[in-house]
Design brief:
Helix content: 25-40%
Number of helices: 6
Distance between the termini: 24 Å
Number of strands: 8
Oligomer: single chain
Strand content: 15-25%
Order of helices and strands: EHHEEHHHEEEEEH
Amino acid sequence: MSYLTPQLFYSSLLSIGLLIPLNLQAAITDITRIYKQTPTLKAFEICTGGGCAEIKQTSLADDEWKTITAIFENSNQHTDAQLERKHIAEAIGTLEKIIGVKTATSTDRAGTFDNSKYPGQLDCNDEAINSTTYMRLMQQYGLIKLHQIEDMRTRSFFLFGWPHSTAVMHELATGERYAVDSWFYDNGYPATIVPFAVWKSGYFPVDSPILKGRSDVK
């Protein structure tokens, strides 16, 4: 298990033949810029195309952001970390729907393999980077109060032996770390948030389309 630095990110992609950039250093520079960005409602970048092969700039209108803030409106929000995690998961799914329309990624399907023929597909690296950006946006605007966003992580293996990446955060009061993984389901579904140790062990939600044998997802 390691920090998913841009260098490790590209090394993992190259090692499994998913990406052979013409200019590796330029690609790493782009990834670093996106990963370290301070997103605002008026401008932020997201990754698409697998391995952040395509970068798209987007924004959120005030009424779109109100949809997100409404998710967090609850009297227990500032004291209930479990509830905040539930709201974060829902907000990531809602942001995927909103941003998907703007960036032609609303058709993103669960998983990666055998999905390249479908438009708007994201891989786990795109998902992890974008979820990190979405959480930073939520935290910057005061919606996340009981957790701190961490750097992304990658686990050595998942289904069929491929490496897999996720966004990560920890609860401030307890220090417990959580994986925030939006790759297991189609665009717009709430992110899967589970204890990081569980995710690291190879966790897959049992109702994920990836495990249901859907013909278009492997």
